[in-house]
């Protein structure tokens, strides 16, 4: 499996953005990406796109070896990252590495791994070390334990049995002290915060088992339970490691995508120079240049220039907004026609982003208070187990058994109920289901989201960028093929996002040599003595045609073309529906779910989309507050809402909804708020997550019921005093195995309905999804 | 039965050796790139 292949699909889908990445760049400042080791050797990491096989790895590593000053280049094929080390005191020339990779045919971006991922990697290693120790200990203790069990029914002398028990103690005690630390620490953290987590019964079970086994060994008894304690830790650690692996993989993918998006800003220096810097280096007060076709990298005030901004990623509004000096611009807006100089402002309390973040925090707090299945199971399980143990103790004492026998049976209850199966029941399903979703192009941010997806009965869509594709396409218009081709060739020389729609409409064409972009107006070129113009209605003198086209397509924008003094032509351009949007919406409605559209765009545009999809419930012109209010009203009426949205204005609604989904082209804030991200042009992932959620929840419930049934059999046996270590070991490993095997059934893939074009009725090709490889 | 006192520590010592070999391999980053490792083994440089 390969996350960068997905990144590639994503970048291909957004040619307008990648075009900005590949343009000849200014003197760029990479200092932020270089870290220095103790001996002064510089080191940098790159996210590399297009690595598919072993040959790529060799090509990259050999190709870079000849660069001056380079000490080592090593490609990590699993997460598509290249780590480059320079010789001590050598200049870290990142541009040379990028150029060499470019020459080899790979696109790469320098990459600064965050602190969070370092801490996570350290935690993953700690868990694997604990797992190794627990595995070693359970193998060796089991070896000795089985000898004792066999000896107990044959002729083993008591002194040999005691020796074997003491050897087990020597292995199990230090191993449990080391391997159990993640659980002990979790239990203490929870208790200090006043919570009883699942770690508490685990810790209690392990410690009591070990103490009792030592006491029994001291008295020369026939049974000791060292094997049970270490085996329990081993199984539970498997669950923890799986859980951690899933989260780390998702994060690595998300980080690669972010790096390949390469969000940078062009800093205008006081001396007039221009410098490309990563976004993290932008400080309030900095002056940045935003060229046509680029996204505004940070909130700010316009100092010079005027332009038309496309706010579809910010507010969902598709009509361009004209900005001039002194006006406020928001990060994420796409610059249309003119270059802007923007002074970055500190995140003042009034900015849109702050408002959105405030709403989001409130919504996320509410969500974190919601109980997931695992919490509910823990809440039921802990008092029941402890009550059963206490009852056993009291019962035996009342029946006249001695303290020793009564305590022994009470501890046996704790051992046999130890949440082996319970500890694996939910993470195992989450890991397998997340892996299956990953192969369908969905990145799950949060494992607990699966069960929330299962309960969804209402689906709310944002329009812009969610039901529609994030980039514009040509939509009709009466144009001769020759004029379309000429306009498309001209459009190739423009960076305006609407020109990109035109350029892709005519198939592969070459740009005209000598075409010139007239800032803020359009592009012109002299071909065979005739001046061709492409741009605004005014630039082409096409006001009348433009108005006619706008009347026919109220939800479109217009780009005009004129050859010499001939009749001008106006092309309507709009964001087309995703190819299978109608089919997906129809399937959702057939399955009995209510479908709504909540958009920030103007009414005419939303109505056009809602009519084509057959959606009756739609609202337009909504602010972030309106959206969150609508979602909360639906939740108040008892509906479980799935919010699908991409804009900055959707982020609070995404956080407030019962479950949420974003396309990978969404604004950063929205990506962080969503439970899952989907890649590609298709809307089918909406159906895939709902199906995967239902399947996962069913399997989790099966696993939980199985654990409950297992306890119903095992607890009376233990309470009655029939529990030998052999039975405990069989029950524990048997139940864990059943639960894990059951979880593997979450791998089944969703049957995919054939996506059908809403108008043409013909089946379209799905975007290439990443090849199916192993996940865990 | 004296042979037990020789054989059991021997078995444990071998097992411990394996455990430490794994921990060393983990620490030296040999599990960081499992997909790449299967190709690297075929290179002769």
TrEMBL record, chain A:
The chain crosses the membrane at residues 130-151, 163-184, 196-215, 221-242, 380-399, 411-438, 704-720. Pfam families: E1-E2_ATPase, HMA, Hydrolase. Keywords: ATP-binding, Cell membrane, Hydrolase, Membrane, Metal-binding, Nucleotide-binding, Transmembrane, Transmembrane helix. CDD domains: HMA (cd00371). Gene3D superfamilies: 3.30.70.100, Calcium-transporting ATPase, cytoplasmic domain N, Calcium-transporting ATPase, cytoplasmic transduction domain A, HAD superfamily/HAD-like. Its main location: membrane. It is found in: Cell membrane; Membrane. GO terms for molecular function: ATP binding; ATP hydrolysis activity; ATPase-coupled monoatomic cation transmembrane transporter activity; metal ion binding; P-type ion transporter activity. Residues 42-109 form the HMA domain. One of its GO terms (biological process) is metal ion transport. One of its GO terms (cellular component) is plasma membrane. PROSITE patterns: ATPASE_E1_E2, HMA_2. SUPFAM superfamilies: Calcium ATPase, transduction domain A (SSF81653), Calcium ATPase, transmembrane domain M (SSF81665), HAD-like (SSF56784), HMA, heavy metal-associated domain (SSF55008). Its EC number is 3.6.3.54. Belongs to the cation transport ATPase (P-type) (TC 3.A.3) family. Type IB subfamily. This is Copper-transporting ATPase PacS. The gene is pacS_2.
TrEMBL record, chain B:
The lineage of its organism: Bacteria, Pseudomonadati, Pseudomonadota, Alphaproteobacteria, Hyphomicrobiales. PANTHER family: FIXS PROTEIN. Pfam families: FixS (PF03597). InterPro entries: Cyt_oxidase_maturation_cbb3. This is Cytochrome oxidase maturation protein cbb3-type. It comes from the Bacteria.
């Amino acid at each position: 499996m390969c996350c960068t292949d997905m990144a590639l699909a994503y970048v291909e889908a957004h040619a307008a953005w990648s075009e900005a990445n590949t343009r000849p760049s200014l003197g760029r400042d990479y200092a932020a990406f270089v870290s220095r080791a103790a001996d002064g050797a510089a080191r940098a990491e790159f996210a590399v796109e297009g690595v598919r096989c072993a040959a790529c790895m060799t090509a990259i590593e050999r190709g870079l070896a000849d660069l001056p000053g380079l000490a080592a280049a090593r490609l990590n094929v699993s997460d598509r990252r290249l780590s480059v080390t320079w010789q001590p005191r050598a200049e870290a020339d990142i541009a040379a590495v990028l150029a060499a990779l470019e020459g080899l045919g790979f696109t790469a971006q320098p990459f600064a791994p965050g602190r969070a991922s370092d801490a996570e990697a350290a935690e993953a290693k700690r868990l694997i070390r604990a797992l190794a120790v627990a595995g070693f200990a359970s193998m060796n203790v089991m070896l000795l334990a089985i000898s004792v069990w066999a000896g107990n029914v044959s002729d083993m002398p008591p002194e040999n049995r005691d020796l074997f028990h003491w050897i087990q103690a020597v292995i199990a005690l230090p191993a449990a002290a080391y391997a159990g630390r993640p659980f002990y620490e979790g239990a203490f953290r929870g208790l200090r915060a006043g919570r009883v987590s699942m770690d508490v019964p685990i810790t209690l079970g392990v410690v009591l088992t070990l103490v009792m086994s030592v006491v029994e060994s001291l008295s020369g008894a026939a049974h000791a339970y060292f094997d049970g304690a270490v085996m329990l830790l081993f199984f539970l650690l498997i669950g923890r490691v799986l859980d951690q692996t899933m989260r780390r993989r998702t994060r690595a993918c998300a980080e690669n995508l972010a790096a390949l998006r390469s969000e940078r800003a062009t800093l205008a220096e006081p001396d007039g120079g221009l410098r490309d810097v990563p976004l993290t280096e932008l400080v309030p007060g900095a002056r940045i240049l935003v060229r046509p076709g680029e996204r505004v990298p940070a909130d700010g005030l316009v100092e010079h220039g005027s332009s038309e901004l496309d706010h579809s990623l910010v507010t969902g509004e598709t009509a361009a907004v004209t900005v001039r000096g002194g006006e406020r611009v928001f990060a994420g807006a796409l610059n249309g026609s003119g270059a802007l100089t923007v002074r970055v402002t500190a995140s003042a309390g009034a900015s849109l982003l702050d408002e959105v973040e405030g709403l989001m925090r409130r919504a996320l707090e509410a969500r974190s208070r919601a109980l997931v299945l695992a919490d509910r199971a823990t809440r039921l399980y802990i008092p029941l187990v402890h009550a059963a143990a206490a009852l056993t103790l009291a019962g035996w004492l009342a029946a006249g058994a001695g303290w020793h026998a009564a305590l022994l049976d009470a501890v046996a209850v704790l051992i046999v109920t130890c949440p082996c199966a319970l500890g694996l029941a939910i993470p195992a399903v989450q890991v397998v289901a997340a892996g299956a979703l990953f192969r369908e192009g969905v990145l799950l941010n949060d494992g607990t989201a699966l069960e929330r997806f299962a309960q969804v009965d209402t689906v709310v869509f944002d329009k812009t960028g969610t039901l529609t594709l994030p980039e514009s396409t040509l939509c009709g218009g009466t144009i001769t093929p020759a004029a379309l081709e000429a306009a498309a060739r001209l459009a190739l020389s423009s960076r305006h996002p609407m020109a990109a729609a035109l350029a892709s409409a005519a198939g592969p064409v070459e740009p005209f040599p000598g075409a010139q972009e007239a800032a803020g107006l359009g592009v012109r070129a002299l071909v065979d003595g005739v001046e061709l113009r492409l741009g605004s209605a005014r630039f082409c003198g096409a006001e009348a045609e433009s108005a006619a086209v706008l009347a026919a397509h109220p939800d479109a924008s217009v780009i005009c073309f004129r050859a010499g003094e001939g009749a001008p032509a106006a092309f309507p351009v709009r964001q087309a529906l995703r190819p299978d949007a109608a089919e997906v919406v129809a399937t959702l409605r057939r399955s009995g779910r209510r479908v709504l559209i909540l958009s920030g765009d103007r009414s005419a545009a939303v109505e056009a989309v809602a009519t084509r999809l057959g959606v009756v419930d739609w609202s337009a012109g909504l602010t972030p507050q309106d959206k969150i209010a609508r979602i909360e009203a639906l939740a108040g009426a008892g509906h479980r809402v799935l919010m699908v949205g991409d804009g900055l204005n959707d982020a609070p609604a995404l956080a407030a909804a019962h479950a949420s989904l974003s396309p990978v082209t969404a604004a950063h804030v929205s990506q962080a708020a969503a439970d899952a991200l989907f890649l590609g042009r298709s809307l089918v992932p909406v159906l895939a997550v709902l199906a995967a959620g239902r399947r996962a929840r069913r399997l989790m419930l099966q696993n939980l019921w199985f654990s409950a049934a297992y306890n119903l059999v095992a607890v009376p046996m233990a309470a009655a005093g029939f529990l030998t270590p052999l039975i405990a070991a069989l029950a524990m490993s048997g139940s864990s195995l059943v639960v894990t095997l059951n979880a593997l059934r979450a791998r089944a893939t969703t049957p995919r309905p054939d996506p059908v074009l809403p108008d043409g009725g013909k089946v379209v090709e799905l975007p290439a999804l990443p090849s199916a490889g192993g996940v865990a | 039965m004296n042979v037990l006192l020789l054989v059991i520590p021997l078995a444990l010592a071998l097992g411990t050796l394996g455990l430490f070999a794994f921990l060393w391999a983990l620490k030296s980053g040999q599990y960081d790139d499992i997909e790449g490792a299967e190709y690297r083994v075929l290179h002769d440089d």
